[in-house]
Specification:
By secondary structure, the protein is an alpha/beta fold. The chain has helices at 3-17, 24-27, 51-56, 63-74, 100-117, 127-134, 140-143, 161-167, 169-188, and strands at residues 35-36, 42-46, 83-86, 121-125, 148-150, 153-158. Helix 8 runs antiparallel to helix 9. The structure holds uracil.
Length: 204
């Protein structure tokens, strides 16, 4: 990444830290912008900060984050080698689902992060990130397990780690398989799910 893009990412983070675009600004403790390598080939996009993330200002530091670290280790990555961000940068009260108005207010930050970091592969964790980026109104369980061409990159949708923690063994196998798929997509994608996906807008 050029110095210019590193500077722009830092500026964007500083801007997000003061953001008042939606009412989550009133209830958050910290803005959780994103962490990791600004030059990462693999970027993970979750849903929204929870209690621990809101306290610490970092994504995925709670129980779901521990699982994420294990899944990344299985495909040969440390957290510091990827970039991790969320659809929402602030915690919804009581961890409720993000509102569409909050997603709309926040999505420009994610769009800029994706543009500046320019990863080769994006792993979307759960329904909210997948719906926002892939623009399909289909649940994650039907979309997962495949690689989608996406803006000259690849997108691999998978289950949210928190859902895996609630859901048991079958889900663990699925999320593991999807992480392996993302790992392979970084080096050797030949087969993609549906080239038409590429025609759909990023945040349109
Ligand atoms: N769940 C998410 O989607 N993101 C986090 O940062 C933590 C939990």
């Amino acid at each position: 990444m050029s110095d210019e893009r590193v500077r722009e990412l830092a500026e964007l983070a500083a801007q997000a830290a003061l953001c008042t675009r939606c009412s989550l600004a009133e209830t958050r403790t910290r803005v959780v912008f994103g962490t990791g390598d600004p030059d990462a080939d693999l970027m993970l996009v979750g849903e929204a900060p929870g209690y621990h993330e809101d306290q610490q200002g970092e994504p995925f530091v709670g129980a779901a984050g521990k699982l994420l670290d294990r899944l990344l280790a299985d495909i040969g990555f440390r957290r510091s080698q990827v970039y991790i961000a969320n659809v929402l940068k602030c915690r919804p009260p009581n961890n409720r689902d993000p509102l569409q108005s909050e997603i709309d207010a926040c999505s420009e930050y994610l769009r800029r992060q994706l543009t500046l970091i320019d990863p080769k592969v994006v792993l979307t964790l759960g329904n909210f990130a997948t719906r926002l980026l892939l623009k399909r109104d289909v649940g994650i369980s039907r979309l997962r397990g495949q690689v989608y061409p996406w803006w000259n990159r690849y997108l691999v949708p998978t289950l949210h780690p928190a859902a895996v923690l609630r859901g048991g063994d079958g889900l663990m196998e699925q999320v593991r398989a999807d992480f392996a798929l993302a790992g392979r997509a970084l080096t050797e994608v030949t087969q993609v799910a549906d080239p038409a996906a590429e025609q759909l807008g990023l945040f349109e």
